[in-house]
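Our preliminary data section would be incomplete without showing what the modeling component actually yields. Below, a chain of 126 amino acids is followed by its predicted structure, encoded as tokens that our downstream tools consume directly.
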Amino acid sequence: MDDPCTSRDGIRLFRPVGPFTLVSAVEAIRDAIDDCRALGARWLLANATGMTGISQPTLVDRFLAVEDWAETASGMVTVALVIHADKIHPQKFGITVAEHFGLVADVYADEDEALAWLHRHMQAAG
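Predicted structure:
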């Protein structure tokens, strides 16, 4: 299987493709965050639109996923998540949870918007 992770302009790009359960998708993104930390990479774009078979996450699912990602990031990785629009909570509940746990993150349905958001954060960080 090809490595779904590459780098461009200082951003790690994680674009997994294929069948996943919600749990395995959360774990795959957590592992990508962990890889970033291990490599000293501060910026991650996780594009999950190529993952298939993922059920609609509940509020509890969103909370637990983001809590896990925040713990893994340990304040050292900023995450832009790209998912299908129908999976984004209308009030971005997961992003509110991320802020509570100290994870700088946002979610988008469009990869270009997610990359622009990451670039703005990179510029602000100097």
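The helical segments are 22-39, 59-73, 93-100, 111-125. Strands lie at 5-8, 11-14, 18-19, 43-47, 51-52, 78-82, 105-108. Preliminary results of this kind motivate Aim 1 of the renewal.
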